[in-house]
Amino acid sequence: VLEKKIAVLPGDGIGPEVCNEAVKVLKAVAEKYNHTFRFSYALMGACAIDETGSPLPPETLEACQEADAVLLGAIGDPKYDQNPHAKVRPEQGLLGLRKALGLYANLRPVVAYEKLLEHSPLKPERIAGTDILIFRELTGGTYFGEKGRTADTAFDTCTYSREEVARVAHLAFKAAASRHGILTLVDKANVLETSRLWREVVQEIAKQYPKVEVAYLFVDNAAMQLILNPRQFDVILTENMFGDILSDEASVIGGSIGLLPSASIGDGVALFEPIHGSFPQAKGKGIANPMAAILSAAMLLDYLNLAEEAKCVREVVQKAINSNILTQELNKKSPYTTEQVGSFIAYTI
Amino acid sequence: VLEKKIAVLPGDGIGPEVCNEAVKVLKAVAEKYNHTFRFSYALMGACAIDETGSPLPPETLEACQEADAVLLGAIGDPKYDQNPHAKVRPEQGLLGLRKALGLYANLRPVVAYEKLLEHSPLKPERIAGTDILIFRELTGGTYFGEKGRTADTAFDTCTYSREEVARVAHLAFKAAASRHGILTLVDKANVLETSRLWREVVQEIAKQYPKVEVAYLFVDNAAMQLILNPRQFDVILTENMFGDILSDEASVIGGSIGLLPSASIGDGVALFEPIHGSFPQAKGKGIANPMAAILSAAMLLDYLNLAEEAKCVREVVQKAINSNILTQELNKKSPYTTEQVGSFIAYTI
Ligand SMILES: CC(C)[C@H](C(=O)O)[C@@H](O)C(=O)O
Ligand SMILES: CC(C)[C@H](C(=O)O)[C@@H](O)C(=O)O
User: Fold this and answer.
1) Do B153 and A147 touch (CB under 8 A)?
2) Does residue B113 sit in the same domain as residue B86?
3) Ranges assigned E (strand) in A84-243
4) Does one domain contain both A253 and A115?
5) Annotated binding residue at B126?
6) Is the CB of A137 under 6 A from ligand 1?
7) So where does substrate get bound (chains A, B) (predicted)?
8) Residues sharing a CB contact under 8 Å with residue A311, sequence separation 6 or more, in sequence order
9) Does the model's pTM come out above 0.70?
């Protein structure tokens, strides 16, 4: 039997609830395919601050480093957001973990499910068939550059090296080559030095992927095009902050951010998490959609080279969608709870 | 008779065409209301580089400084975009002018015209009644911070001072107080020091405007909310780069970026321009929508304290929309040319 260690970081808000369902599904997969998954739980985010004083306790980092993959719920708590003077923040845990694990590429697939088009704020004819894979650089840029404060001023520095751009660009080119062969670099090369470096490196690397067509879009234009005509995109490649904004923007296309998984990969162990946040208002109400967490678990299975298992999870999620086994945001009339959706998927595996 | 000097910078691509129509409308206003507007033309952008080697020749800056207001078409040329090594770029002209004139606040109104809802990529019931005023800080942040390159690395610095935040924040609070009383600050205070400074300053200033309700949104969430529920917004306040992205994103709501004007104001003379770009593919074809330029001229009239005249221009634009006197993007069946739309509006004034 194949044996894998999975570190689970439930986090804050609805994180624990959706993580529970994803773990339930992974257990069902293990049983069906006769694998052994060992789950180890650890604290990160606001819950870790409350418990230990640190958003990323050393035990948590160790648990992740020892695992074959990491599954994360969500982190964040509004009590830190209104206080610009807070010294310790939940987000430091997530950013610290990304950096410590070298997770330089964040993959965010955006798909418009036929059955759910009516829930999108966009007109169905504009979005049907949308299938985008966003590669967001995750350990560089303004998130990790030097930053500081005086009483009267503040600064944040965005820095990139050729190597930081190249490694994520290669992943994006490879993905584009295996998909529809179009890579769109999003930058602000008419203003930023870092964007001009991105463009330079991507132009060079493009020569090694002659079958991939490369398009260049300024970030302001990209923010329009994503809504005007999302089907024009196949793979989008961009730096950390632009990727944060554009991938959340793109999440509206499918009608629910509660459906969107992500994978963060790098040199070592990889991490999988829904792109939604900790949504504290929904905590404990059983209304959170666990599908983003469950689809993140499917990406985790792919990463462990369990392609058939991953496919099985995706098919069952699709079946749940087709059967309207959905939480209230997508099924107002006869909503299922978080737990019911997770159980349906786990038992159908 | 009232006499005003207006500097006109037609710029590149469709800039000259749409500027022509805006000037035509201003001339009609002058005639009707018995004012004298003196127009002086100057070069900026790619056309200025071609002609003089500089994107912002000293004569242009002088013409602007001597004027009571500046009307700009659009700047930019793709021949500079694909070359990360270009030393001179059209955008330097616009950025240089914003800085030289101290235009620290860029106002971008976003309105969904009832009659045009069908053209929006968004469902009409989501957007009907949208009326947002975006205040984008325009002379600080990563656009103007220190930037640099080595062979292998690049950096851009985002800096803000308390004073830079405060002056644009006061304008936004005043606007909110005279509108629906809601100001939303968009930042990334969970990651950026500059955002925490913005939040701190806005929290302080808020006390002086007790009737204005203040909301805080992270930029990634704001990029979603603008599409999910644009009616929740009244005034949005944000820093330079976030404002660039979000205002272009918001432009899709109304169904056409060709309708959206902007005003850039500061300590001295103010500048008015469409938010669309130079759209080189459309140049010379007579298909560009001149309404954004004409509505920018209306904002210019407001700025010159000619409120009645501004209102008249807006009413006539509304009349043109209601009568389907529209360029091809909004009227596929029987499109009017740029010139015809401009003339209809000018003659109806
Ligand atoms: C919580 C926050 C720091 C994080 C980010 O900005 O990267 C989140 O928005 C995300 O996209 O994963
Ligand atoms: C042309 C470019 C430099 C400019 C900007 O980014 O400010 C434009 O996109 C705008 O929004 O006015």
Assistant:
1) no
2) no
3) 105-111, 131-137, 147-149, 153-161, 182-187, 213-218, 235-238
4) yes
5) no
6) no
7) 98, 108, 136, 220
8) none
9) yes
- Domains in chain A, number: 2
Question: Which of B214, B237, B256 is the C-terminal boundary of a domain?
Answer: B256
Segment B217-261, tens digit of pLDDT: 999 999 999 999 999 999 999 999 999 999 999 999 988 889 999
> What is the residue whose two structure tokens read 């205002």?
B247
Residues B152 and B97 in one domain: no
Q: Using the 3D structure, point to which of B229, B256, B283 is the last residue of a domain.
A: B256
For A280-292, b/e burial (b = at least 16 CB within 10 A) is bebbeebbbbbbb
My answer on whether A73 and A117 are in the same domain is no
CA dihedral over B271, B276, B280, B283, signed as positive or negative: negative
φ/ψ of residue A65, rounded to 5 = -65, -30
B37, part of any domain: yes
Question: For residues A195 and A221, is the Cβ–Cβ distance under 8 A?
Answer: no
Q: Please tell me the distance from the alpha carbon of residue A103 to that of residue A196, in angstroms, as a whole number.
A: 23
Q: Are A302 and A135 in contact (CB under 8 A)?
A: no
CB contact under 8 A, A147 and B193: yes
| Domain CATH number, residue A14 | 3.40.718.10
Q: Are residues B54 and B137 in the same domain?
A: no
Chain B CB contacts of A188 below 8 Å: 241, 244
Mean pLDDT of chain A: 96
**B247 interaction partners in chain A (CB closer than 8 Å):** 220
A32: containing domain:
1-104+266-349
Q: Give A285-320 pLDDT, tens digit per residue.
A: 999 999 999 999 999 999 999 999 999 999 999 999
- Rama region for A326: left / alpha / beta (φ>0; ψ in -120 to 50; rest): beta
Asked if A152 is an interface residue toward chain B (Cβ–Cβ < 8 A), one would say yes
For residue A279, the chain B residue with the least C-alpha distance is B221
Secondary structure of B31-94 in the HEC alphabet?
Answer: HHHCCEEEEEECCCCHHHHHHHCCCCCHHHHHHHHHCCEEEEEECCCHHHHCCCCCCCCHHHHH
In A326-345, the residues whose Cβ lies within 8 Å of chain B are none
Residue B274, in any domain of the structure: yes
- Are A139 and A100 members of one domain? no
